[in-house]
DNA sequence: TTGAAAGCGCTAACAC
DNA sequence: GTGTTAGCGCTTTCAA
């Protein structure tokens, strides 16, 4: 009745070697498809591995060679857009022998440092950092320790690769769409970026800049109206409240992220207004939420899956060739128009 | 200009020992707060650790002792309820030196096996399996290898601990609420469970059973109406379509999960009906989605955070004492009534 | 209280 | 093409 009397000793490479009547080196080589193994040997080893149910210990492997494990850090597990990226990563890696482990959702530099350290401590073969907020030097440090791909920042690092969408273009898609519908007072809710070093590469800051540029291009420079909050539902709610209280209320709100748009919709409903009759709303990320029929939110599609696939591909390439020059992929977003945007009230 | 010319050698316990002028054994002991270290020695070692920025290698640790890492497996990263549980786990472990790593979202037994194996391969100190679908014997196997807590199954295992909510009571809360409002034709959408071994412990099956019991208790045995699909948005959509096509349409739908309710709402909207005027809808899990003001879905709250905290606590207790008897915690759910439920149309 | 030394499971030189 | 051997960084006996 003792549940775990004897935690049975794990099958090791030595057991496999004995069972197959070869050396441990041979087993190791076969397992890694390394050079210098005869077909006969491979067959013997594979058979023994199967019969004994052997699995290599990633911990032991990590001390000498690879662990065949990729770490993925994502800031907020609740944001469905990140799940999309993750799907792409998973899809790309599913054909390989690499495993994935995720860091727990982390907000802020301290938590990010903790997560990346943990991944390094486990000697993961590479890490994918999704929308990190850490300083550039911190990312540099991580990348100098382990092959790294950064997703969602417009980086120009020579140390790590990056994948992001063209946020300037994405913001322009929204403004163009709203302007074409006849809107002039188009407001934007941004995630405030104070650190000047980060303004150049954080997507939120670039979306705001893209909004400004597009407004100017439409001759709407005087109508530029940005509220600075955070990319959260709460941020959208508070930001929208500010905008709705304006003497000349905007006729359209471009939220920097779908999660922000959720808060915006909530504030609008609470104010007794209707979307899109009284006010149009657009988001960014094209999450499942935006696609939810009763919501039907116009949103910028970043092709998260493709971003994830690209990130995984770049990482494997870097693992294979540590010195290869850094690649920086910019994917073009598209606009998915839905019922939350329409012509402004007259 | 070479980006990663020399990946600098990691600081090891030997470096710390030399710097502090003590033995590696001493360093190891201090790091683990082990018995037999003088205050003076501790001070010296701590100082050296800080000065050198030393971090223990989890990989190396894993070969002999603990890795101070907990693995959490969750089936679907998109379901916000799981994020809630995760928050609870994170909260409880934040006071400890344990780190968390998550498995990638997995659906199906094969994927679950892969994830748990990966965690074991990395010699994690313990694993928390959230709503696993694997067979009982498979869970037993995992638990006999590594301390395990299973979340969301009504298990009676002697090998692993478990935490779940009382799904019979949760279903009753919904039926009671709807019956009190005057509903009789209350339908239920369940996630189909065919494996007889699993019916007794899977929450979806127990919710369906709770629905049946509660309906009978209200004298509504003849109105029992269950559609079997899956716990997905698509499942809810298709299930609702079936129900709406009934000759005597139900006046209320109890979806087995909020994600299912999303699909239900979509089908209802598409059918040109209104919630709650034409039909009431209730969900299960009280996700952020249910709380979203424009939706305002009545839902059963499982106290996910508390579930996570309990799971983490049980796991640490088991890690400390491997032979302790298995504990099975059942938390009582509560009902959060919102605008999606009202009296039936007359 | 402290430290020397053996090994955890694996990979990588380097023989043969 | 194959096997022997020396570690990787850490924990853990076991002596001192």
From TrEMBL, chains A, B:
GO molecular function: DNA-binding transcription factor activity; transcription cis-regulatory region binding
Keyword DNA-binding: yes
Residues covered by the HTH lacI-type domain: 11-65
Keyword annotations: DNA-binding, Transcription, Transcription regulation
CDD domains associated with the record: HTH_LacI, PBP1_LacI_sugar_binding-like
Protein name per its UniProtKB record: Transcriptional regulator, LacI family
Species name: Micromonospora coriariae
């Amino acid at each position: 009745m003792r549940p775990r009397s004897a935690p049975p000793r794990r099958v090791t490479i030595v057991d496999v070697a004995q069972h197959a009547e070869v050396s441990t080196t041979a087993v190791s080589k076969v397992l890694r498809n390394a050079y210098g193994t005869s077909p006969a040997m491979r067959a013997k080893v594979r058979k023994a591995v199967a019969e004994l149910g052997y699995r290599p210990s990633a911990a032991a492997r990590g001390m000498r060679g690879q662990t065949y494990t990729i770490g993925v850090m994502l800031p907020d597990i609740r944001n469905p857009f990140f799940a999309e990226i993750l799907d792409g990563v998973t899809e790309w890696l599913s054909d390989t022998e690499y495993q994935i482990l995720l860091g727990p959702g982390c907000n802020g530099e301290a938590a990010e440092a903790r997560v990346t350290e943990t991944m390094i401590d486990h000697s993961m073969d590479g890490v994918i950092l999704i929308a990190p907020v850490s300083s550039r030097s911190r990312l540099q440090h991580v990348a100098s320790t382990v092959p790294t791909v950064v997703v969602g920042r417009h980086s120009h690092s020579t140390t790590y690769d990056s994948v992001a969408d063209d946020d300037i273009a994405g913001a322009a898609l929204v403004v163009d769409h709203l302007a074409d519908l006849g809107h002039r007072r188009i407001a934007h809710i941004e995630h405030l970026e104070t650190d000047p070093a980060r303004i150049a590469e954080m997507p939120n800051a670039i979306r705001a800049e893209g909004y400004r540029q597009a407004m100017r291009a439409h001759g709407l420079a005087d109508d530029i109206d940005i509220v600075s909050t955070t990319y959260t539902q709460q941020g959208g709610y508070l930001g929208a409240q500010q905008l709705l209280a304006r003497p000349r209320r905007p006729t359209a709100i471009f939220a920097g992220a779908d999660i922000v748009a959720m808060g915006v919709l909530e504030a609008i409903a609470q104010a007794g207004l209707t979307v899109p009759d009284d006010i149009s709303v657009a988001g960014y990320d094209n999450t499942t939420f935006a696609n939810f029929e009763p919501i039907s939110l116009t949103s910028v599609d970043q092709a998260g899956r493709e971003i994830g696939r690209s990130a995984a591909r770049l990482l494997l390439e870097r693992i294979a060739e540590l010195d290869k020059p850094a690649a920086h992929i910019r994917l073009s977003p598209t606009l998915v128009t839905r019922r939350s945007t329409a012509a402004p009230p007259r």
